[in-house]
Amino acid sequence: MHDLIKDGSIIQSRDFGSDTPPVLAGNKGEWFPRVTIGPPYDPATQNRELVKTVTATESVWTYTVTEKTQGELDAIVDGAKEGQLNSFNTALFEILYNYDKRLRVLEANPIKTKAEFRDIIKSLL
Question: How confident is the model over 100-105, as a mean pLDDT?
Answer without folding.
Answer: 91
